[in-house]
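Technical appendix A lists one of the benchmark inputs used to test multi-chain prediction within the project. The record comprises two sequence entries:
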Amino acid sequence: MIDKHEVASIASLARLQFSDEDLTTFTHQFGRIVDYIGAITQLDVAGVEPMTHVHDVVNVLRDDVAGTSISTAEALSNAPKKNDAFFKVPKVLG
Amino acid sequence: MISFTEDRQRFLDGSLSVSQRVEQCLAAIANQAQLNAFLHVDADGVRAAAAASDERYRAGLARPLEGCILAVKDNMSVKGMPMTCASRILEGFMPLYTATAVERLIDAGAVVIGKTNMDEFAMGSSNETSAYGVVRNPHDPSRVPGGSSGGSAVAVAAGLCHASLGSDTGGSIRQPAAFCGVVGFKPTYGVVSRYGLTAFASSLDHVGPFAPTMADAQAVFDVMAGADAMDSTSVPTPEAQPMPPIDGLKVGVLEESYITGCDQDIQDAYAAAIEKLRQMGATIVPVQLQHEQAWVPTYFILATAEASSNLARFDGVRYGKRFESDVDIVTETRSRGFGTEVQRRIMLGTYVLSSGYHDAYYTRAQKARRLIADMYNNVFTQVDVILLPTTPTSAFEIGAKQSDPVAMWLSDYYTVSANIAGIPAVSVPVGTDTAGLPIGLQVQGPVFADAMVLAVAAQV
């Protein structure tokens, strides 16, 4: 059975944080969900190749020709914060 | 509901103008604001486009979809209109380009009236996870419209547009189509480009139309279909095969054990549709769709795994809304910007991909996926198409399943397998139950048999 500690560590991997109360609710729901998807462990898949894609396409390449792309100004137009040609974020290294 | 193929005759003979129809739709959207179907209405833009369409009709230059009033699910980019994916995290986001599917429709004459409400990031089966409020079913406003493309289904059902676009990752077009009494079509995987569709689970995501009739859905689909250099998973439209007559067509039907979980009225509608096809000369063949206990678990493992990866891009740095924090803007933004269902699915996806569980869940689900796809390939050596219910129940009450995620997920039981295998599937309305709520039935066919699936569904 999945416990609260394990759910908290998954949250940290996913860059999410929850209040203690939400974490308790989540842990309860998570247990039920994991039980449910666990049905898949009953399936006999011996010798079956994993399927990653519907169609048998492998590499889809195009000619190496330069095309038009978005401008720096457009790329920055949705940024919450920007500075000159850069996305602006709080200082990460001390 | 308003049919474009019928209106087109009026536009051509001059008895109705596109501008008049657009004004009626704008008035209907305002009058039915309580349905909450739209997140953005572009009144000025659609009026200008309608005037241009009217000019083309007058000049004899009308294109195939000239004046088709189109609503677009708010997870598809339309340049000049905000896109939120019904999430706080994309508040204020303005797309830089228009999705290929929408672009092709505009190039064929469609006029975009606005963006429709949906479950947040298309994660939900009831349209209750939208950050902008629940969408209401026009047949009974106390009930859900289905999801995740609830707003698009309602926009067609309530006559707010001619046709709309949705996305379908596990049933998100077909299930709301069934709940709202409209046609909803999920084509073969890759036949409609996803360039400009916000990725949820890339190996399962499809774009498709909602419309009042099969002919309308076909008209929209025909224009959207075809390979796109901007989507490397897109595939060329298959050569149209001559449609075999219903007389002699082999229609696979589910054995009783698969449908005992359905409402009685849906079981009755299913039996009636089978009888109708039989009387038209179809050969009815009972089929076994194996591994059915694994359909929904396989779907949820793959979909959440892909979602946890796809939604990693929402970090509050490059676009969307940032929630400031002295400690960590990424965690703060994702914790406050995403709603509960989206967080739940990111968590589940992170779990099934994490070390120690990857092989037990994710790799095993990929193997189950092949078993399910092989199962369909085998069934389609015996039958041309399969007829099945779209949903086990008609539209449920708002709030009825919100506290139990697994119960909500099970409303996708009949739809997810078509996404797993990538096969075309359409939901067609077949009347109402004793409570007056719409019932939809589903026709599925082999990969690339899109035209046949639509042709058979038109007869159901």
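Residues 4-224 of chain B form a domain with the Amidase signature (AS) enzymes fold (CATH 3.90.1300.10). The radius of gyration of chain B is 21 Å. Comparable benchmark entries are summarised in Table A2.
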